[in-house]
Amino acid sequence: MLLLGTSFVDAPRYTLARVLMFVWDFCRDFWHELRGIDEHARFTYCPSVCVILAGYNEAESVGWSIESLVGKYPRLEIIVVDDGSTDGMLHEARPYGKKYDNVLVLGRPQRGGKSSAMNFALPYTRAEIVITVDCDTSLDPNALWECVQFFKDPKVGAVSATVFARNADTNLCTWLQAYEYLHAIFIGRMVAERIGALGITSGAFACLRRSAVERTLGWDVGPGEDLDLTLRIRKLGYTVRCAPYADCYTDVPTEWKRLWKQRLRWEEASVVRSHCRKHVDLADPTNANFRWNNWWVSFELILINLIFGYVILIYAAWVTINVPRNIPMVLMTFYVWSLVLEVIHILSLMYYSRDRLQHLWICAVFPLSPIYQLFLIANRIVSYTRELFWRTSFADNFVPKHVRDRTWKW
Amino acid sequence: MLTLSNNTDALPSVDDTNHAPIEIPDLSDLFDQRQDRRFHVVRPVELIPIGIDGLLDLERRVIGTSRELSVHSVAVDIPAGEWHSSQQLLLGMHWQQQVHYAGVIVRRIKTHERGLFLGAEFGGLAQELIEGDAPLPTFDRDELAFVLPQSPKLYENWSQAGVVEKTLLDRILVCPRCCGVPTFRHACRKCGAGRVKNDRLIHHFACAYVGLATEFTTETGEVVCPKCRQIRLVVGSDFEYLTGENLCGSCGWRDSETELYGHCLRCNWRFEMHQAREQELHGYHVRRLAPLAVITDSI
């Protein structure tokens, strides 16, 4: 029954928006082709960029992470922050600080959390653009160029890059996540940007205007600090753009249990903690800084993810109790309906993809996608319930205890 | 074992004709000038010739037996054929299960049926090296390094012979180039300059804000977070201090941490701490022979 609700409410919403976007872009590109207008990206804007690599116990990956960034952009500085690691991360990173003039290695004696680690790096740079990259994330050669082009517009405060799963071929769990990332991040954020509802930049690879970050006085205590900062940047009046071809790759969880925990953390920090509590003023028309596009960001998430999530649960329970005989038929009907929508998703994806063969291979897992969506919805409902009643995000060990004990409980 | 004798007649008889002739300087006049009382002290002794550079000639070490001992002189019997004609000697006498040393100058040599009889006076180069304070390394203001009273080679030689006891006093870091004494400072990691300015930062736990400590301090001296406006912050509980950016006044390099650099006072060489040479400072202890104590103990 959950599947029924998902297919009925959530999937068509995205499908419709995607189809409209696809039709619009196809017509535009066709028109440009006829008129001979070359609209391919030109890297004409080159602001100074500072990449912040903040990590805790990332001794194994910090070296190649620095090496993968050096030389990819002319006006680049890299700040590595060791957040009180115990595995010798600082020791591993130090030689790179001596090897490269544009690499600065900072260390903290005690772990303080990712947010404060990034805030610690902020005063060290005067670059126009600040980019946060996770230590286990690798960037495409042109990723930095792709991102910074949007900042030519002074109204742009943040740019969301595209995160792909690096280990898609490990097992079914990672394969499904890779498929999800393709739709939710690569295409999903393009759609969100078109409808003015893009309110997140992934912490794994987020591009931010430094002046905007300084106006917000930096990151707040996590988890969900990337979402929180993006919303605060939006509140300042900046727009958030999506750079679909600024690709980065990260390892996704390989076990279902770890994936469940990761999503619990993400979801706990997003809708209830950020949109319903801390940034509830986004939906308040009496607020002096009220904007309809900000309201739309919150409204969409609260309505679709939170309210509809519980509605689906109640509806599923009602159907199970009252008409249990129809369950197999209804399930099958909506499974087939979901597959039809998935095929439309894949077709639109292929239009935008630059690596069609690879993406087509990832999309081969689509028959299992409705079941995977069921898993994610169940996860959302559990996490929202935990956060609503017990504020479990404030007990997450993503943040060290001495910090989470003192932080503001929204 | 001890008998008191007031004159040289008490010495063992010597028969020159029974032994191979040895070229001996005639020092009898000097020997006869002894005025102090001599005691019959029989103890094992060893005699080591000493060169003009103070080095001991261990290959020509001779084992013998003391016959008489006074405050200023000693008489020794040594086996025939082992004597190599040296005037400056280091004498080691076994006493209280240890060997005690004194420098001697040979004044008289006579042969007898069992070997040679040596009459010697305390003094000479070896005695000069032994007397006085124990040899310790001291800081030389001219050399700007730690030096010993004599050449280190000499003390090593004496130590190998077992005459002096080598003791580790200290382990210091010196210039890798010239072994001069350096000064150390927290310096710029890039150029080694000590002109490094540093700011103190505060990390407020509640809102993760990190800023200059001066930003947090109000005119009344209260600590207030400039981001979330929380007041009455307590260090350790609400915030922590962090070491801020180090800015080098010489090369403009910025870094979160400084590095210990040495600057040699003697040759002006600047080097990183891990390049410094570790130097061991040794003192040398020698058991000096105190004739009066030996005599007193033997009575």
Structural commentary:
The complex is a heterodimer of chains A (410) and B (299). Chain A is of the alpha/beta class and 410 residues long. In chain A, 55% of the residues lie in helices and 13% in strands. Chain A has 14 helices and eight strands. Chain A has an eight-stranded mixed beta sheet, with helices on both faces. The longest helix of chain A is centred in the first third of the chain and has 34 residues, at 2-35. Chain A is globular, with a radius of gyration of 22 Å. The relative contact order of chain A is 0.14. The model of chain A has no long low-confidence stretch (mean pLDDT 89). By secondary structure, chain B is mainly β. Among the domains of chain B are: 39-130 and 289-298, Beta Barrel (Thrombin, subunit H); 189-257, no CATH class. Chain B is 11% helix and 41% strand. Chain B contains five helices and 19 strands. Chain B has a six-stranded antiparallel barrel. Chain B has a four-stranded antiparallel beta sheet with strand order 14-13-15-16. In chain B, a hairpin with a 5-residue loop joins strand 13 and strand 14. Residues 1-20 of chain B have low confidence and may be disordered.
